[in-house]
């Protein structure tokens, strides 16, 4: 049966993109049994198994029977996520593990972490794979690797989710860890409160210092809001100086690369540069579809794959907008008591577009401004290196951020052939995965486009 399952997995891998295959089929484990007509598979959780059976069991069964050449009994069991063994425990043991899980949830909430933001619910693709891998290392070796850890990217791409995932894992590994996860806005309010009434309070300062300087891990979300706040930055720098020498982990999220922060203490930027900075890029199509499937699974909703693909193709901005679109689809299905189909999804998404006001003209102008060239160069036949490269980047962004065809994009760039556009898209896609500097450039242009007025 092991060979049958391995061949079935290979067939499933060919049928689905990696971002769908890995979370659903890649996490199933083969269980050795004596019966030659029974295939036993172990799922990582009851939730995973419920969604897997509702969406994919019939297809798995069909492939298994075809490969085995006879009917095979397909049996699923569930692994205990805490012990890594099949769940065949007494009710007393189950209650014990449930209590332990509840204790971690309570600790997480007290530390400022949000329920549900875990590595298990973080969907991974090309856009966030490096950030995810780095975060897992930070969680495994806090204070030893990548300290401070700086996660940056545009709004709604999963920075907060990833940071909370690290925090959660740190507490699971060490429930006695002194961890605090806080928003930059709340941190600012606490610093302002030190001088409420017009003068600094020694008692409040002492309490503030004791709170932050004795932490084992500090997580701050959206540090871009600290820009132009010199007093708050000074407090944060003092905390850095207290925690980093003692190998206490610091994790920050931001909407831009550290060096792009304006009116920000150079000493803090230097400290950030000494750690690791990773970016989360806009999700590619396959990742968007996988995220939708995961979000539906979390709500115990059956989302057909073709509907996930439809929504992912319609919205190409950020995860929050994907969630909003999914809610619209689910709500319409609930209100009208209809199954979720492509037809219903199209009705629910009428007028919704992830590209907003971004047009090819916007992209051309913003890219030209970034590279300090003329807009006319986007349409010209010039092959000067910096002009040609800027033009290729603009073509790539036009394909990523609009729903225009390759032919339409080519026409907008001086009547170029669609094969020229395809070449540019493939080239920039490949280089983006290899060159951090290009990642930064694309991130800045994308941010400027999202702020287009």
TrEMBL record:
Key words of the record: ATP-binding, Cytoplasm, DNA replication, DNA-binding, Lipid-binding, Nucleotide-binding
PROSITE patterns: DNAA
Keyword field contains DNA-binding: yes
Domain Chromosomal replication initiator DnaA C-terminal: 359-428
One cellular component term from this protein's GO annotations in UniProt: plasma membrane
Span list, region Domain I, interacts with DnaA modulators: 1-81
Residue span(s) of domain AAA+ ATPase: 145-284
GO molecular function: ATP binding; DNA replication origin binding; lipid binding
Chain positions recorded as ATP binding sites: 156, 158-160
Cellular compartment(s): Cytoplasm
Subcellular location, principal: cytoplasm
Matches recorded under Gene3D superfamilies: 1.10.1750.10, 1.10.8.60, 3.30.300.180, P-loop containing nucleotide triphosphate hydrolases (3.40.50.300)
Entry's Gene Ontology BP terms: DNA replication initiation; regulation of DNA replication
Region annotation (Domain IV, binds dsDNA) ranges: 334-453
Source species, domain of life: Bacteria
Record's function text: Plays an essential role in the initiation and regulation of chromosomal replication. ATP-DnaA binds to the origin of replication (oriC) to initiate formation of the DNA replication initiation complex once per cell cycle. Binds the DnaA box (a 9 base pair repeat at the origin) and separates the double-stranded (ds)DNA. Forms a right-handed helical filament on oriC DNA; dsDNA binds to the exterior of the filament while single-stranded (ss)DNA is stabiized in the filament's interior.
Subunit and interaction comment: Oligomerizes as a right-handed, spiral filament on DNA at oriC.
Record text about domains: Domain I is involved in oligomerization and binding regulators, domain II is flexibile and of varying length in different bacteria, domain III forms the AAA+ region, while domain IV binds dsDNA.
Record-stated family: Belongs to the DnaA family.
Name of the protein in its database record: Chromosomal replication initiator protein DnaA
Source species: Parasutterella muris
């Amino acid at each position: 049966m092991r060979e049958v399952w391995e061949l079935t997995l290979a067939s499933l891998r060919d049928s689905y993109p990696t971002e769908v295959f890995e979370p659903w089929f890649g996490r199933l484990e083969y269980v050795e049994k004596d019966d030659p007509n029974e295939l036993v598979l172990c799922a990582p959780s009851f939730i995973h198994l419920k969604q897997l059976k509702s969406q994919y069991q019939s297809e798995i069964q069909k492939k298994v029977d075809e490969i085995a050449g006879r009917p095979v009994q397909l049996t699923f069991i569930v692994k205990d996520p805490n012990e890594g063994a099949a769940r065949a425990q007494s009710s007393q043991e189950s209650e014990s593990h449930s209590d332990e899980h509840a204790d971690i949830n309570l600790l997480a909430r007290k530390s400022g972490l949000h329920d549900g933001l875990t590595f298990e619910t973080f969907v991974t693709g090309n856009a966030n794979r490096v950030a995810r891998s780095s975060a897992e290392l930070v969680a495994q070796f806090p204070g030893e690797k990548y300290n401070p850890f700086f996660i940056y990217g545009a709004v709604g791409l999963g920075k907060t989710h990833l940071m909370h995932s690290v925090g959660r894992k740190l507490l699971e590994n060490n429930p006695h860890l002194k961890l605090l996860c806080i928003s930059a806005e709340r941190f600012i309010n606490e610093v302002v409160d030190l001088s409420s009434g017009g003068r600094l309070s020694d008692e409040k300062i002492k309490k503030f210092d004791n709170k932050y300087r004795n932490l084992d891990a500090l997580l701050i979300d959206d540090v871009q809001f600290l820009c132009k706040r010199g007093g708050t930055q000074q407090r944060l720098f003092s905390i850095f100086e207290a925690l980093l020498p003692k190998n206490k982990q610091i994790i920050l999220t931001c909407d831009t690369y550290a060096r792009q922060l304006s009116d920000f203490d150079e000493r803090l930027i230097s400290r950030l540069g000494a750690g690791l900075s990773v970016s989360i890029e806009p999700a590619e199509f396959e990742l968007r579809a996988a995220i939708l499937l995961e979000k539906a699974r979390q709500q115990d909703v059956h989302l057909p794959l073709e509907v996930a693909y439809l929504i992912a193709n319609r919205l190409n901005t950020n995860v929050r907008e994907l969630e909003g679109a999914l809610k619209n689809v689910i709500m319409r299905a609930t209100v009208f008591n209809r199954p979720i189909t492509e037809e219903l999804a199209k009705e629910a998404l009428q007028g919704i577009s992830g590209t907003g006001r971004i047009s090819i003209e916007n992209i051309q102008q913003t890219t030209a401004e970034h590279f300090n060239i003329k807009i006319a160069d986007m349409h010209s036949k010039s092959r000067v290196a910096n002009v040609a490269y800027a033009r290729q980047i603009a073509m790539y962004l036009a394909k990523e951020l609009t729903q225009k065809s390759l032919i339409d994009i080519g026409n907008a760039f001086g009547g170029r052939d669609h094969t020229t556009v395809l070449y540019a898209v493939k080239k920039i896609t490949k280089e983006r995965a290899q060159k951090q500097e290009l990642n930064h450039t694309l991130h800045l242009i994308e941010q400027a486009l999202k702020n287009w007025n």
